[in-house]
Structures are given as structure tokens and as C-alpha cells.
Amino acid sequence: MSANASFLIHHPRLILYFNKPSTSILHLRQNLSLRHLPQSLNPSIYSSFSVALFRSCRFSRPSFSLNPRKLSSSSSSSSSYSTTASAEPPSLSSNDNGGGGRSGALSSPPVIEVPQKIDVNPPKGTRDFPPEDMRLRSWLFQNFREVSRLFGFEEVDFPVLESEALFVRKAGEEIRDQLYNFKDRGNRRVALRPELTPSLARLVIQKGKSVSLPLKWFAIGQCWRYERMTRGRRREHYQWNMDIIGVPEVTAEAELISSIVTFFKRLGITASDVGFKVSSRKVLQEVLRCYSIPENMFGKVCIIIDKIEKIPIEEIKGELVSVGISEAAIEELLQVLSVKSLDKLEEILGDAGDAVKDLKQLFSLAEKFGYSDWIQFDASVVRGLAYYTGIVFEGFDREGKLRAICGGGRYDQLLSTFGGDDIPACGFGFGDAVIVELIKEKGLLPELSHEVENIVCPLDKELQGAAATVATILRQKGQSVDLVLENKPLKWVFKRAARINAGRLILVGNSEWQKGMVGVKILSTGEQYEIKLDELE
Ligand code: HAM
């Protein structure tokens, strides 16, 4: 390449023009393409060149490699509900294609004029849902919906894209560092929601006095967190949430836990498979109050304590000291956190405060609801979100193999921190990933197959229209129909009928059609008959 050579690199988000390669990089018009590159240059040179430049320019990494070898789509996509880290799609190039990072302002996508192979894997940490996985997801969501219905909840939804401000809280939560956030084309800071609760709070505030309390709302939505991928944790997951707004009583928490127990039971999961660890943030609050630690430290302390099982205890102590908690208060906090029985807690805190009172009421209600054997007191549960103010709970698998299955609690001040009225609220989030791992472990995965009631097949090409009429009549009667759209031999039709688990084969043949009739074969029994079209049910 001569010293004055100039060339172009196309990228889905960027077009680079290299005048003297080391000096000028310009965004270009979009009607130019790789065919403007000097023929003598091997594509792999462009690839490494572009990667180096992307690195040095701190641009978003290219989402494809120009190296044809690396463009090969040979790697197979992992199952949507395979949540092990090893199931991650391999990255495309030496750079981690799916890693993302924060993107800057957007330019229009370029028009690519050269045919190219795309990476067939979804971005790292995300999933496709081919039919077999979608069936499982739909089954799971149906169970979420049915349980919510049994408890009298109404379904709501919010946008996946929200204003970033909704998720930026002060307490240093992990969820904030995991935010997928960026500026949109109008220069607004936005984020893909990492959870549903702030959106719910926003909607409740927006509705204001037009809704009457209590609200019992549920939602099933996709959430995004830039997580380190482990079993049951992905960068995109669905959460089932149930929230009760406007009830200050512990009856609300008891009702919510009851709904999760109902869900587990529907799936065949028992109290020996799963339990709930329950505590109250008021336990910590009471300890902090004894040491005259200001209320506004509370959220921060909870977030630090929540990491107790993830980082060494000395680090926890160090963090607590750095936010101004005294050594004596830390010792007392750690002692209280190790308590696993309500009686012992009462010994330490006395029975005057709300913490013990609330927890006792919850355990008493659990008896009435009939799920005492599912719940246990564990003071170490504080949960990683700053907004909880009272009872908190987490569903866990008793074998200890999986991450938290679900979690929730009371958040009486979230609405007022967003500028709304002080309205008591509590709820939970239940992810779609860990539960699938659990039912796989327990052998409780349902057998879900594609099923169609009828397969309708014309026996020759001219009868395609007649077959369409038959299919339409059946569909109008509420029957599902797979219509054979091409002229296929019967052997092929039988094979397809077996694959889609069709109940009946409806054959549209010339002589029958002349008489206004069709042939029917019941595929489970082999029974065959002819029937008038208007008698076909
Ligand atoms: P959370 O504990 O952060 O709470 O998440 C709730 C549940 O969502 C977890 O227990 C887990 O099942 C699932 N989950 C969370 N992150 C991931 C991930 N990266 N991959 C797969 N599953 C995940 C909340 O989000 C609260 N907003 C829940 C709530 C609702 N509290 C009151 N109302």
C-alpha cells in the first residue's frame, strides 16, 4: 500500500475512512463500500487493523470481524434455558463481541453492499427462544399468570427502556453498576430496566388518586443486568413480580409468600426442595439505632451487609468502618446477623421493637396459610437493594446448588423518594432462569410438544383452494389447522402429521369434494371415514 493510499472500513455502526492510516479517521457517506478497498489487501489485514483502531479510539467494539474465518457460523447456539456459564455463545473475534460496554452517541447504520455472514449467536448473556424453549417459557409464564389470577392480581407492564434516573440510587448497589445505560438520539440518558419495581413505583405515582388502594399488580417482563455470567444469572432474564401497594400490614408479605408457595406446589416442588429465608431490615435498624447511627446510613449498611457471603468478613468490616460505623456497632451487627431463631432475636432485641413483632406475626400467619414448613428466620438476609424497609425474604433451594430463586420485601419509602406520596408497598421478583434449573434438577420438566388438532391436505394441486376453504371453516370453529401449502406426497404428509402431533388428517380429494365431502383419518386410532363439510366439527 502506498503511503497515500486511502481506504474504507464498513462496520454496522461506523464507517471509517483511513486517509494516511495512522493520522486521519473520518466518518464517511454511506454509499461507499469495501469494493473501494485496494484489491491487493487481504481482508484479515483490515480486520486486525480495524480492531487495533477500535481499541485505540475507544469506540464500541466491532460486532463482526472482517476475518472470514472468524465469521464462520459453525458454533451452535445454546438453549435458552441452559444457564451454565459454559453454555455462553463463543465470542466472534479476539475481542469479546457481546461484552458491550457503554455506547456513545449513535450514527445511522451503514448500508452494507458486500454480502457477508453474520454471527448467528445472540449477544453474550442473551437468549433466543426457538419453539422448544418458547414452549417452556410460555408454560412457565402461564403458571405465573394463573397463580396471580388465583390471588386476584391484575397484570401491568412498563417499557423495557426507561429513564436512567429511575435506577440511579445513592446506596452503591450492584444493580447500578450493572446498568445497560446510554444516551439516546435525543441526548437523553436512558437505561434498559434491570428490575421492574422502579417502573411500578413510577406508574403508581403517575396514576395518583385515580386508582384506589390497595393495588395488587403483577407483571412479567424482561430485565437487563450486565452481570458476570454464572449458573442462573444472565444478562437478560424475565421476572415475574407481584406487588401490593397501600397495605402497611404484614398480611401483605404473608399473602405474597403464599402465592409463591402456591406456584411451587403447582410445579411439583415441595418444602423439602425449597425454603424461604425471612428477616426484617428493622432488625438492622434497631441495632443501628442503639448505636445512634443516623437513619440515612441505613441503606448503605444494608448493601454492605448483603455482600457478607460474597466477600471476606474483614473486607465487610473495612467497608462498614469506611462509612463511619464504629467497631462496637459492627461487632453487634455481625452477632445479630448470625441469629437463626426468632426466640434468640427476641432475647437480643427485646420484644418492644417492630422487627420482632412483624416477624412473629408473619410466622403466625404462615401457619394459617399452611406454609410454616417453607419458611425460616435468618437474620443474615438483608437483600441487595437499598429501598427495602421491613420484612425481606428470599427463596432458596435446600441443596444449596443454585442462586436465589426469588426475593422480595417491603419498600415503604420508595414512592416518596421518587416524589410521590408515602405509600406502603411490598412485592417480590421471581426470575425465569433459576427455576428452570431447579425443575430440571428435580426431574419436573414438563413434556411440552407442538400440537395441532388438524392437518389439512389437498390431494392434488387443483384442490389447494378447496383445502383452504376446509381450513378456514375449521379455524372459524376454533380448531387449529396446519394446512399443507404445497403439493406433497402422502408419505410426507403422514411424517409431518406425526411431527406436529396432529390429531386428525383431513384429506381433500377430488371425488369427495364433488360431493361436498372430505376424508378424515383419526391419527391416534387409524379410524377413517368420509364426512360432509358442514358436519365437520
Ligand atoms: P432481585 O433479588 O434483584 O429483586 O431479583 C429478583 C429475582 O430475579 C432473583 O431472585 C432472580 O430470580 C432473578 N434475577 C435477578 N437477576 C438475575 C439475572 N441476572 N439473571 C437471572 N435471573 C435474575 C428485584 O429485582 C426486586 N425488584 C424484586 C421486588 C419486586 N421487590 C419488590 N418487588
From TrEMBL:
GO CC, sorted alphabetically, is: chloroplast; mitochondrion
Q: Which reaction does it catalyse?
A: tRNA(His) + L-histidine + ATP = L-histidyl-tRNA(His) + AMP + diphosphate + H(+)
List GO BP terms, alphabetically: histidyl-tRNA aminoacylation
- Spell out the InterPro entries in the cross-references: aa-tRNA-synth_II (IPR006195), aa-tRNA-synth_II/BPL/LPL (IPR045864), Anticodon-bd (IPR004154), Anticodon-bd_dom_sf (IPR036621), His-tRNA-ligase (IPR015807), HisRS-like_core (IPR041715), HisRS/HisZ (IPR004516)
Which parts of this chain are annotated as the region Disordered? 65-129
- Which UniProt key words apply to this protein? Aminoacyl-tRNA synthetase, ATP-binding, Ligase, Nucleotide-binding, Protein biosynthesis
Which NCBIfam families has this protein been placed in? hisS (TIGR00442)
Class of the enzyme per the UniProt entry, highest EC level = ligase
Q: Can you provide one Gene Ontology molecular function annotated for this UniProt record? A: histidine-tRNA ligase activity
The protein's name in its UniProt record: histidine--tRNA ligase
Residue span, Aminoacyl-transfer RNA synthetases class-II family profile domain: 125-446
Q: Belongs to which family?
A: Belongs to the class-II aminoacyl-tRNA synthetase family.
Per the UniProt record, which EC number(s) apply here?
6.1.1.21
Biased composition, Low complexity: where in the chain? 72-96
Q: Gene name? A: LOC104586326
